[in-house]
Amino acid sequence: MKIIFDCERMKHPYTGLSEYCSQLGKALQSTAADNEVAFYVPPGYKNYFGHNSRYHIYSSIHKIFPLRVRQTDVWHTNSQRPLIKSGYGMKRIITIHDLNFLYEKPSQAKIKKYLKAFQGNIDRADAVITISGYAKTDIVNHLRLNGKPVFVVYNGCNVREFPGYDRPVYRPEAPFLFSLGTVLPKKNFHVLPCLIRNNDYELIIAGKGSDKYARQIMEKAAEYRVADRVRLIGPVSDKDKYWYLKNCTAFLFPSIAEGFGIPPVEAMHFGKPVFLSALTSLPETGGRYAYYFNDFDPESMRETFESGMDHYIKTRPEAMIIQHAGRFSWEKSAKACWDIYKSALL
Asked: 168 lies in a domain?
């Protein structure tokens, strides 16, 4: 079986979609057995998956003049953008990561536009993959599948470790709480500064994003008089991410629009206490090994955090948290995808 794995979204580094394409692509390659993987990549990424792989280079002109490929059985698209028409009778699989735009308070016109685009993708696809049961429910409720199957394939989590690395881009002066993600309103980071009021913690938030939203976070920090202990450090290297995850006191992730949520699993890999929003897919990700903010009232959040930390210190559940994180591997994800590709050809 020959597949093309669409990695066009890797043109936006330091994003969840880029990481998804990178990690799942590598895992598909390592689990290919007698199958063959080719990669559809943006310019500059040829040979990213090794010199022995086949590559097709993305161009915006493919939106008008489709890329034509022969002797390929399955094209797997991994983005929310419209599917590029391509190939001669090959099967088409699309991963729909989430319908988060439904919860980001866009205009009804935008919601209608986005749903129409997604519907067009489903109409052209032979099967749909999504990354959580929560996302599958949204897809079933808001789009017409017309009998096409939807498969849940959880994301994996491979944390690169750098033992001995001790040169973070910013070194906190006190015990710190850590959060990681694209700095946009849907990540809900502005609710976090209340957690370091009346204690000595620093709050470190890593990730690229919106300057406007970053200012909103710092305004909220000023409101609680903790702005001197809140640091927005921008996108970080794998080495820095490793250092912050390994050394933080706790990991915070209050997102209100999440298809899966890899950062909490990365923190759980180190046995850390993670505090998550009870919304969207995050209860699937954290399971019974995480603590949950049921609302974002400051007093309620502080109570959840303090009681969670007390429970963590008393019960020492690190081993169980690490074991839970181990459930999510890209190798498992890749093997599930290979099964889906095969089923599409039956």
From this structure: no
* C-alpha to C-alpha distance for 100 and 83, rounded to whole angstroms: 19
Q: 16-64, pLDDT tens digit by residue?
A: 788 899 999 999 999 999 999 999 999 999 999 998 899 999 988 887 8
Number of domains in the chain: 2
CATH number at residue 265: 3.40.50.2000
pLDDT beyond 60 at 243? yes
Please tell me whether residues 30 and 137 are part of one structural domain.
yes
pLDDT in tens, 148-190: 999 999 999 988 999 999 999 999 999 999 999 999 999 999 9
In a domain, 291, yes or no: yes
Beta-sheet strand order (sheet of 150-152): 54-57, 36-41, 2-6, 74-77, 91-95, 127-130, 150-152
In a domain? residue 201: yes
The domain in which residue 151 lies consists of 2-156+329-344
Alpha helices in the chain (DSSP H): 16-30, 108-124, 133-142, 211-223, 238-247, 262-268, 282-286, 298-315, 318-325, 330-344
**Rounded Cα–Cα distance for residues 346 and 339 (Å):** 11
Strand order in the sheet with 202-206: 230-234, 202-206, 176-180, 250-253, 274-277, 291-293
**Inter-CA distances, 328 with 72, 264, 265, 336, Å:** 29, 11, 8, 12
Question: Nearest CA to 231 among 246, 214, 250, 245?
Answer: 214
- Quick check: is 163 in a domain? no
